[in-house]
Structures are given as C-alpha cells and as structure tokens.
Design goal:
The protein folds into 2 domains: about 1-50; about 55-250, Fumarylacetoacetase-like, C-terminal domain (Fumarylacetoacetate hydrolase, domain 2, Alpha-Beta Complex). It is about 10% helix and about 40% strand. It contains 4 helices and 19 strands. Strands 1, 2, 3, 4, 5, 6, 7, 8, 11, 12, 14 and 17 form a 12-stranded mixed sheet that branches. It has a 5-stranded mixed sheet with strand order 9-19-18-15-16, with no helix packed on it. A hairpin with a 2-residue loop joins strand 2 (about 15-20) and strand 3 (about 20-30). The radius of gyration is 17 Å and the shape is globular. It starts with a strand and ends with a strand. The structure holds zinc ion. Zinc ion binds near residues 59 and 222.
C-alpha cells in the first residue's frame, strides 16, 4: 500500500492512501489504528506533501563503498550516523534553496526508511516489525561547509535540504532496487541498494542502540557514488525502481 499526505484548496493537510490515480482518506492514526475510506479524490486535484512528520531524521554516511572512495574516505567499520533537523524537510516539487554561505551544494539521492513502531535496542532480525515502509529522499549537502567544519550539522542542516516523498510504500523490497539520480535529465548517480555496506536491519539495530526510534522517524540510508553540484534553475530527480520518483527544482536564496 502507498500512504500519502496531501492538501487541496479546501482541505488542510491530511493522511491518505493511493489507489491507482485516486486518493482515499485515512481516518484515525496512521501509526496505530486507522480505517481507509474510499479512494475518490483524483490525484491531480491534490498537492502531495512530504508523506509524514518525523520527530528526527537520522542519516547514514558512507554506506556505499564507491561513494566513500570518491571522497577518499574509508568505509566505516560501524555505521556512521548524523542528524538533519526536521526544518530541512520540503515537499516533493518544492524548491531546494541554495544558501548564500555555500559555493558547492550537492545532491545525494537515497532510499529512506520510515519507522512505524517505537523501539529501542531493536534486533536486526526484528527490524521489519518497526518499519512502516519506504520512501525516496535527497540528502542535500553543502559540501564545502561539510568539509570546512569538523561536524556536519551546518553542511547538512540548511532549510530545504531534506526533500522526501512522494509517498510511503509499505510493500517495497529494499534488498536490490536500482536508484538513479538525474539533474536536468542527465544521469549523475546509479547503483543498486544491494551495494549498501550496512543493511537496513543492521542500521536500525545500530541507531536504536543509541536513541529511541519514534513512529514517523526517517532513516536516510546513504548515497551511492556520483554526487555532484546543483545550480539555480536545475531540476533534480531521484528515482527508485518499484518505489517512485522524487522531483525538486533548485533556486537561489
Ligand atoms: Zn547522505
């Protein structure tokens, strides 16, 4: 099933589900008890929003060996994690804003896990029970600032630096899906999720040994090789086979 968050001219943001090109409402709690109402609203009459509202966004760095290599970095022995503040979130099709402090803003197309059930110290083999589904994300990064600072908070943390969506797919299989990232239609990144250094189960076990995962929290699982610059006027598209396409324009501040 695919869950969305959407709004229309008449209606405030609301959770829904997709049936082909129609949206039906979710009544109740998406992360608890809910009921699916009939899908009657044509998708083109709704604006799709970032499909949930996470309390935190946890990202895994250097989770594809070829990406670590392009930055002359070692593949970490344990998952390397960092946070992006929820204020980085934008909707599908909303603009990524280039901050004036950076000369080198780059795209990072990534598979994103959406947590469904609260948990701490989750075992890798139990991770599935805590996943609601998967979505697509772009871990936009001010590479020059990331390099200049010892910590990544600034380079990863600007407003608009975490587009994700367009929906949460509960049936997606993350073991071997092709991820591509294009800028203005030109291929920049292409890899299979089977090339991840740490699997989704291992990542969830590792992160939840540090912090409680809450329903709606996002885990960005790392980006493959081929990251590159974004300039004003670009359109960046992240496509994951069997999952969907996330598209965002790029604008000057
Ligand atoms: Zn990343």
């Amino acid at each position: 099933m695919r869950f969305v968050r959407y709004q229309t001219k008449e209606k405030a943001p609301h959770y829904g589900w997709l049936l082909e090109d129609k949206i039906g409402d979710i009544e109740g709690d998406l992360f608890g008890e809910f009921r699916r109402l009939d899908a009657t609203l044509p998708r083109e009459e709704a604006t799709l929003l970032a499909p949930c509202e996470p309390s935190k966004i946890i990202c895994v760095g250097r989770n594809y060996a070829a990406h670590a290599k392009e930055h002359n970095a070692e593949v970490p022995e344990i998952p390397l994690i960092f946070l992006k503040p929820p204020s980085t979130i934008i909707n599908p099709n909303d603009p990524i804003i280039l901050p004036p402090q950076s000369e080198q803003v780059e795209h990072e197309g990534e598979l994103v896990v959406v947590i469904g059930k609260r948990g701490r110290n989750i075992l890798a083999e139990d991770a599935k029970e805590h996943i609601l589904g998967y979505t697509i994300g772009n871990d936009v990064t001010a590479r020059d600032l990331q390099r200049a600072d010892r910590l990544w908070t600034r380079g990863k943390g600007f407003d608009t630096f975490a587009p994700f969506g367009p929906w949460i797919d509960t049936d997606f299989d993350p073991s071997d899906a092709v991820l591509t990232c294009r800028v203005n239609g030109q291929m920049r990144q292409m890899a299979s999720t089977r090339d991840m250094v740490f699997s989704v189960g291992t990542i969830i076990a590792f992160i939840s040994s540090v912090m409680t995962l809450e329903p709606g929290d996002l885990i960005f699982t790392g980006t493959p090789a081929g990251v590159g610059p974004l300039t004003a006027g670009d359109e960046v598209t992240v496509d994951i086979e069997g999952l969907g396409v996330l598209k965002n324009p790029v604008k000057e501040a």
